[in-house]
Amino acid sequence: MRWIGLCLLVAVVRSLYLPGVTPMEFERGDNLTIKVNSIKSTKTAIPYDYYSLMFCRPSGPGPIKADVENFGEILWGDVIKPSRYTFQMKEDVTCQKLCTTKPKDKDGKFRQLKKLKTRIDDEYRGHFLLDNLPVSEVYIWEGRKESLYYKMGYPLGIPGNKTRDSQVNNHLAFTIKYHKPEAVPGYRIVGFNVVPYSVESAAIDKDCKPTSEWAPEQYPAQTVVFQPKERVTQAISWSYSVKFEEDVDVAWSSRWDHYLKSADASNEKIHWFSIVNSVLIVLFLSGMVAMILLRALHKDFNRYNDPDNEDEAQEETGWKLVHADVFRTPVNHELLAVYIGTGCQLLGMGFITLIFALFGFLSPANRGGLLTAMLLLFVLMGSYGGYTTAQLSKMFHAQSWRTIFLAGTMLPGQVFLIFFILNLMLWGKAASNAVPFTTLFALVGMWFFVSVPLVFVGAIFGYKRPVIEHPLAVNQIPRHIPEQKWYLRPPVTVLLAGVIPFGAAFIELFFILSSLWLNKFYYVFGFLALVLVILSITCAEISIVMTYFALCYEDYHWWWRSFFISGSSGVHLFLYSIFYFVTTLRITNFWSALLFFSWMLVLSYVFAVMTGTIGFLATFVFVRKIYSELKVD
Questions:
Q1: What pLDDT, on a 0 to 100 scale, did the predictor assign at position 9?
Q2: Rounded to whole angstroms, how far apart are CA atoms 153 and 256?
Q3: Could you give the C-alpha distances from 46 to 65, 222, 298, 496, in angstroms and in order?
Q4: pLDDT tens profile 453-489
Q5: Is the pLDDT of residue 103 over 90?
């Protein structure tokens, strides 16, 4: 237990990185450490180790060890390793040959060459790091004056077609920008850009020298051909050039701004307009819903509680008619308590993570920090989930440690099962985000030795609290529910009502999905906080309204209905992911599509549990409030 607690503390401290507090200064001639990250493609969504291809490897015996910083980095597929590139601060290099690699395997076949061609045709991009700053290509942002667009990484090559062979980018022209701060010795790195070129290997072998003139665009391209045999590429030479430029306008603390502003540059105006439009529409809807409810309830209270109302005294109507059944214990109440407890655990995790993000603790410079923080906070919020589950179980008069165990294992177990199956597939693909056994054991250890015990600790406190008493007694014989019209039946009302909460958040979901599947940064946490507030209000109000209508038509089965009404937004999220897959992504590989839909199923499921919990808790408070104000003989 001690080593698990120590690992948790270290991971939390490392994940809460404050950007701009640890700058590094370099003197002229100092060695600059270049690291490589996994190669990634939006066409396949499966990352691979950089050294899985025939690139130049660092000198030295043995395997190349990765620099692992946190759980999130491993789960996300970031494999950061040292490289063979060596730069010296403020010392330009016209051209430096790195090495020559021969693709022929020991058995005479060309598997490495074929793999390189496949990665190029799948539009994979290489990723380097200098002083924790990722390399990027710089483009002119069309439509704006003096604006630049930064695209992460560089293409491994130019894909081939029926009339043209694939070309490999084997010469990289780096531009390193530095800033000289006042009253501080040395220089700070504020930019790391690259322009890739495809240069014939013979030209590199002959003309690439550190001091000679070098114009890579004037040479023929280096093709990648593995068949027919007479045209097979026999060797590939790799080279680079380095140019240092001073940037007086960009300070070290703001060097990430270019990447963040370019995260989804083409949709910036649409983003702003859609968010404001969504806010206004949802606020208008909330005002209308609140006004209708208050007026309707005020009228009902006056009618039901007025002793002089002879019509009401003769016959009870509306939601008062089911007052003796509205607090009847629902079917599968243990499962409901488990879902609500898990939903509270997820909401607590999301709320605290968002607070850290708003205050700048989760910087994009700390790769995997956000995912690590979410994972650890979910584990630590287990006590909150256990407490809620215990309170509901006690209210249903169904106290059971089995229910508490389900609260700690059901949803994590379902997600872990999907994760493990997908991980087996990634192992088979030799992907860099295939989680090793040691990390799997660590995750299982955190789950069973930290999260589950915390769930039981929370449950102990929950069981010790006084039971939640219902304001009205329940009849022993259930009341018959009249046949409902088709548009009032649960499947119809649940699916239709779920459109409203989803509509409040789907614009922001587009940007979140882009960050997940298109390798873009997501940093507008202020917008996300606003959207989550609107989403919570919408989930609460739509569940209350639909439950009120059901009670007015004498349907008192509101417990699960209130959960599913707002929780059905998860169904709409999954349907939207299908639309997103067809219209935005360019994935054609079966395994990549399976990976996408499996994780979107998990995300939709978690989203449904969270929104369903919000709707249930709001409806629970609403129902108790209106029936506690009711005068019943």
A1: 37
A2: 15
A3: 21, 26, 57, 36
A4: 999 999 999 999 999 888 888 888 888 778 878 777 8
A5: no
